UniProtKB/TrEMBL annotation:
Gene name of the encoded protein: mecA
UniProt name for this protein: Adapter protein MecA
Family: Belongs to the MecA family.
Pfam families in the record: MecA (PF05389)
Organism: Aquibacillus rhizosphaerae
Membrane-spanning parts: none
Subunit: Homodimer.
Domain notes: The N-terminal domain has binding sites for ComK and probably for unfolded/aggregated proteins; the C-terminal domain interacts with ClpC.
Top-level taxonomic group: Bacteria
C-alpha cells in the first residue's frame, strides 16, 4: 500500500491487486462482499492516519477507482464542516466506486514500446495511444481496443516490457504529450519494424 498526501484534508492510497490478495480480498469482493470491504477501508484509514499523521474524524468522502491491471487507488477527503458535531471517535465514510476499463502501462525506454507493439499487432491489436510524460512513455489501451481479445494475455504481454501505471488517463491527457493519438500499435509497428 502506497500513500500520498494531496492537501491538508486529502490523501491518496494505492493498492495493487497483490495488496488486496494479501488482505484476503479479490477484485470481485469489492463489488459483492460489503462487510469485508468496509473492514478493508476501516483498516486502510487507520494505517493512513498513522503514517501521514492525519487525525481522521467526522465525515470522510472516499472515491475508489479500480484500474484494470494495476489495482485501485482511493482518494480520501476529510469534510471540514464545522457545523456538524461528531463524537471524538466517530468516523463516517461515504464511498463511491468506479471501475476503469482501460489499460495503462508505463515504459522506461521507447524500444520496449516498439517490441510490445510488434507482439500486440501480431495478435490482432491495432489501437491505443502512446504518451510521453515525466521522462516515461505510456501506452493506453481502451476497452474497445481489447474487445473480443483475451485481456489477461494482453496484460501479460504488456507486463513483460513495462509496469502497470497508477497515473490516470485524465492526468496523461492534461499533462502528457501524445506521440501517437490513435492506432498507436499499428503505427508503431509500421514505422519501427521490430
Amino acid at each position: 500500500m502506497r500513500l500520498e498526501r494531496l492537501s491538508i484534508n486529502q490523501f491518496k492510497i494505492f493498492l495493487t491487486f497483490d495488496d488486496l490478495i494479501e488482505r484476503g480480498l479479490t477484485k470481485d469482493d469489492l463489488w459483492h462482499d460489503l462487510p469485508r470491504v468496509h473492514a478493508l477501508f476501516h483498516d486502510m484509514m487507520y494505517e493512513a492516519s498513522d503514517e501521514l499523521g492525519i487525525e481522521l474524524e467526522g465525515l470522510l468522502l472516499v472515491q475508489v477507482h479500480l484500474l484494470q491491471a494495476q489495482g485501485m487507488f482511493v482518494i480520501v477527503t476529510q469534510n471540514d464542516n464545522d457545523d456538524i458535531e461528531y463524537d471524538d471517535d466517530y468516523v463516517e465514510m461515504k464511498v463511491t466506486l468506479d471501475e476503469s476499463r482501460e489499460l495503462i502501462f508505463y515504459f522506461e525506454d521507447f524500444e520496449h514500446i516498439i517490441q510490445v507493439c510488434a507482439r500486440l499487432n501480431h495478435i490482432g491489436l491495432s489501437g491505443g495511444t502512446v504518451y510521453h510524460f515525466d521522462n516515461k512513455y505510456y501506452v493506453r489501451l481502451y476497452d474497445n481496443d481489447v474487445k473480443e481479445k483475451n485481456r489477461e494475455h494482453i496484460i501479460a504481454i504488456l507486463s513483460e516490457f513495462s509496469s502497470a501505471s497508477i497515473i490516470t488517463s485524465y492526468r496523461l491527457d492534461e499533462y502528457g504529450k501524445k506521440i501517437f493519438e490513435r492506432d498507436a500499435i499499428d503505427q508503431v509497428s509500421k514505422l519501427f519494424k521490430a
